[in-house]
Amino acid sequence: MEISNERIINISPIDDEYLCPICVHLLWKPVECQNCQRVFCKSCIDKCLKEKPNVCPLCQHYQEKRCSPLLYALLCKFKIACENKHNGCDDILPYESLEKHQQEQCQYQMKICRGCQNNVLKNDLDQHEQKCGEITIECKRCRLVYKKRETHEQLDCVMNMMNQSNKKIESLEKLVENLQQNVQKLEASINLHSLIDWLSSSVAHDVPLSSLASSWNIIYDHPYSHVTIVAELRALVAQCKKQIMVGAIQGSSSMILKIAAMGPLEILSLDSPLNRPTTFGNVNWYLTPSKSFGFAPSSTTINCDRADYNEKDNAENRLSWQLHGGGGWRAGTAKYLDNNSEWRKIIMTMKN
Ligand SMILES: [Zn+2]
Ligand SMILES: [Zn+2]
Ligand SMILES: [Zn+2]
Ligand SMILES: [Zn+2]
Ligand SMILES: [Zn+2]
């Protein structure tokens, strides 16, 4: 705090020993350098020490000490005019009570209005703020924050509340929409999972490709008249992930597997002795080079010569493609398909 000489009322001229050598004003909250015994305002010497730690501006070796009680007692004799004299404060305070007066008690200090941000005498602040048009108010009903100079009629208030409700409704509607989409996705994945469970345990019929599209890829799609050879099947292994599905579609644009079964990738590497299939899940799989490739339910035997021709036992659950130079032969009960170009041989693999 810089107290200029003209504010000191009762003592003049002021002896140098009461002046801070740094700011050359009346000492304020003084401390002493133990080395040179000179006294400084606490704030002045702290500023110096921040730039050059431990360096006294007078003797170079600063060591702080409380100033003597005698000096303090002498300072307390000073009577000082309030810093707000120019605003109208006529108070003259003793040294010890100056700070408290100026900071807490003086009604002539300047305060900043919370609305217009102008300086206003503390004395007038309440009155000013009551009238100041820039003061903000929050409406208790609609929570709108507005300036006092702006009007907030009842109609504005109702409109505002309606807008807010509409926004809330909109966001709730979006939420519901998202939830519905998630439910649909969940339902689809539940369907898919039960479908896969079913497929993996036995032979399935009339499976829409759309139900498999999200997790399965077609890697082999040829008409039954196409001649499948062992090397072709073996070559598919490189493209396959763990599970494969083998089936048949009737019609070049049809999207429905009339018959299908699912099993592990090893199926494509089988080297089955004639009529001795390997069971995976509830399905018997065989890949007998020079004879045929296909599946039948695990509870049945297969009767392969060129292909599985069994007619009586579970005929609808058998699929068989020739591997000796002819086309596919059966898809369920549809047989003699080796020259057929309507039926398609399908092999799929799981995407992940
Ligand atoms: Zn000073
Ligand atoms: Zn010193
Ligand atoms: Zn004052
Ligand atoms: Zn104001
Ligand atoms: Zn309102």
UniProtKB/TrEMBL annotation:
InterPro entries reported in the protein's UniProt record: Znf_RING, Znf_RING/FYVE/PHD
SUPFAM superfamilies membership: RING/U-box (SSF57850), TRAF domain-like (SSF49599)
The RING-type domain, residue ranges: 20-60
Coiled-coil spans in chain: 118-196
Keyword tRNA processing in annotation: no
Record keywords, A-Z: Coiled coil, Metal-binding, Zinc, Zinc-finger
Keyword field contains Protein biosynthesis: no
GO terms assigned for molecular function: zinc ion binding
PANTHER family tied to this protein: TNF RECEPTOR ASSOCIATED FACTOR, TNF RECEPTOR-ASSOCIATED FACTOR 4
Protein name: RING-type domain-containing protein
Organism: Rotaria socialis
Source species taxonomy: Eukaryota, Metazoa, Spiralia, Gnathifera, Rotifera
